[in-house]
Design goal:
Blueprint lengths: L1 H5 L3 H40 L6 H32 L2 H21 L3 H4 L2 H29 L7 H6 L4 H16 L4 H6 L4 H18 L5 H9 L6 H8 L1 H31 L5 H29 L1 H24 L3 H28 L7 H16 L3 H11 L5 H18 L11
């Protein structure tokens, strides 16, 4: 009976699916734009205005620590919002996460600095950053499932890749905004210029909420609800029956999250502070690489519908492992061209297939009644261990080993090895029914 109720004319289904796809991508892009703004500003602004110190390295470490702290709160966001998503629905959850993320971002843009309110400035900044972490922790799983659960078996990989565009689109928007503002005189940039993208993101949030308000709940969740297959305690059921899958998902996440924060966030401080690159040169390289990624991700998603998710993910992991040392060598040549080439290869070519198939691959591991909880907790757990802490760990390794990049490259290699081990335990889900 549930199957009859869900069925609809193909053109109506297609319209609903396309709107859901747009909602998942737009909302995800806005939230990652807000999220990455903080990561970029940590190296350019927050170390000076909110964590002032006689030693600039200490100020930068504190700023990166505030960036990394949000990753430890992301699993909590995943737990809270995935509980709502698995009990009530994906749509309501995505409205809440977007409002939480957007509100915290706008308030960061309005927050007085250390000279104005003293110790309250870093305390409030960290609090708002934690609110961002809660929001993004619940957003990712919902946006992925909104797309995946509206897809068919034949195009699931492509649909699942679209919300993953949120990461490069958000990073690209953030990088372009900062690159334009960095042309201001330093005094004006530090005084008011850096605040503009945080405050103006309110407009994007309103647009995102309007788009998401017009979507319906996913057919897969509707069917589960009508049949009564809703978990009473999704988190309890997830760790009782699927705890191995959660940890396998977290391990597979390492290779996608840790290298990206080195290539897109840590590189800003490393290339400008240690290698003498201009800030605009580094930001432009990251922007170009993310632009390439925006085209690559849907292509890789389509390819995964033919060859499977696992082969692409394993191939990307091995390529990432092999490129860790060449990446830093190319940066050490202190050439803007080689910096750009290295960044395009790392993000646009190697990282793209990982990002494209990750959400779909994780979704195919868990059953509908705990799917939101399973992929959210596993993903955010992996991000907490090998994600936001990466810039801080990389900076600490540089200072501990006399500015040598070799330990940082080995850190990437370690993430790749752990992910490869995890991938052996994941079954290919291309032909599975959700």
């Amino acid at each position: 009976m549930a199957q009859v109720q869900i069925a609809a004319p193909p053109e109506i289904n297609k319209k609903k699916a396309n709107r859901a796809l747009l909602a998942s991508m737009v909302g995800s892009s806005i939230e990652w734009f807000d999220f990455f703004l903080y990561g970029s500003m940590a190296a350019l602004v927050f170390n000076k205005l909110y964590f002032p110190s006689d030693d600039p390295i200490v100020g930068l470490l504190l700023a990166y620590m505030s960036f990394g702290l949000s990753f430890f709160i992301r699993p909590l966001g995943g737990i809270v919002f995935s509980h709502i998503g698995d009990k009530i629905g994906r749509k309501k959850t995505l409205m809440l996460t977007l409002m939480l993320m957007g509100g915290a971002t706008v308030l960061i843009g309005l927050l007085p600095d250390y000279n104005a309110i003293g110790i309250w400035a870093p305390i409030l900044l960290v609090f708002l950053r934690l609110c961002q972490g809660l929001g993004i922790g619940g957003e990712w799983g919902g946006s992925v499932l909104l797309a995946v659960e509206y897809s068919s078996k034949k195009n699931r990989g492509f649909f699942g890749s679209i919300p993953q565009l949120g990461v490069p689109v958000g990073m690209l928007l953030g990088t372009v905004a900062i690159s334009l503002l960095s042309n201001l005189p330093e005094e004006q940039f530090l005084s008011w210029g850096w605040r503009l993208p945080f405050i103006l993101s309110a407009v994007l949030i309103i647009v995102g909420l309007w788009i998401r308000k017009g979507i319906e709940e996913t057919p897969v969740f509707q069917e589960a609800k009508e049949s009564g297959d809703i978990a009473k305690m999704p988190l309890v059921d997830t760790f009782r029956y699927h705890w191995k899958s959660v940890f396998i998902t977290a391990g597979a996440k390492f290779v996608e999250t840790s290298p990206y924060y080195i290539f897109a966030t840590f590189v800003i401080a490393y290339a400008t502070g240690y290698l003498g690159y201009q800030t605009s040169t580094v930001l432009n390289a990251v922007a170009i690489a993310n632009l390439v990624t925006i085209f690559m991700i849907p292509l890789m998603g389509k390819l995964s519908d033919k060859v499977g998710r696992k082969p692409l993910y394993i191939g990307g992991t091995i390529a990432m492992l092999l490129f860790a040392f060449p990446y830093f060598y190319l940066l050490s040549l202190q050439s803007a061209i080689w910096l750009t080439v290295a960044t395009i290869i790392a993000i646009g070519i190697i990282w793209a297939p990982l990002e494209a198939v990750m959400g779909t691959m994780f979704s195919e591991i868990f059953s509908t009644n705990i799917r939101y909880t399973g992929i959210s907790v596993g993903n955010q757990l992996g991000a907490a261990v090998f994600g936001g802490t990466t810039p801080m760990v990389a900076l600490a390794l540089l200072n501990a080993f006399n500015d040598s990049w070799v330990p940082v490259a080995l850190y990437i290699v370690a993430a790749c090895i752990i992910s490869l081990i995890s991938l052996f335990a994941i079954r290919e889900g291309k032909n599975l029914d959700l």
